[in-house]
Amino acid sequence: MVPNLPVIHTAERFVVVNKPAGMLSVPGKGPDKQVCAASLVASMFPYASGPLIVHRLDMDTSGLMVFALDEHAQRDLSAQFERRKIEKSYTAVVCGRVPAEAGSIDEPMRLDVERRPIQIIDPDQGRPALTRWRLLSLEPDRSRLELSPVTGRTHQLRVHLAHIGHPILGDVLYGPQPQTARSADRLFLHASYLSFLAPTRGSTVRTHSQPDGDSALRVEFHNAAPF
Description:
Elements: E1 7-10, E2 14-19, H1 37-44, E3 62-68, H2 71-82, E4 87-95, E5 102-106, E6 109-111, E7 119-121, E8 130-139, E9 142-149, H3 156-163, H4 179-182, E10 189-197, E11 204-208, E12 218-222
Parallel strand pairs: 3-10
Antiparallel strand pairs: 1-2, 2-3, 4-9, 4-10, 5-8, 6-7, 8-9, 10-11, 11-12
């Protein structure tokens, strides 16, 4: 059975999809890991040419992804990510009650070469990693946050939140977590906002997605401000 990949916006040169949790962004190793967001986009848009991939989400993370549909669009969108021109934020539910309304986590990270794919905080040899967060709501034993990664390190949000003592609910890779978190059926991390400049057109595309379902998805278009 082919998994569902909701498409929230299609343009001539790119498409924005809502990747479900548990789906790979790109093909993995082995014949059983070839079905992924990229392969589904390729099957839905057979006229696409050149590399589709612009960025990735962890398999356990759901939410918004943009794919290019031609080589020039892929270069354009990739350059926007590399130059940090893309605006993006995530919604996460974390264990415990955070002690402030907002904050930032500025902790260098690197791969733990003996425990791949685990990432660790390393002030001496790690690459710079910065995450900004804002409190959305509090519950008795958890907090709902908006997370805005300034850098894009592997597992950055998961590592940073665990580092400050508030691991993301359902994240069994970085812990420890209370029993309620270990029994969660998924990682409570969703890419909920993505904004970029449309290739060629130059207009700003702002996409929104709520983690509780496809019905809340919406897209906004804005003309780029003149320089």
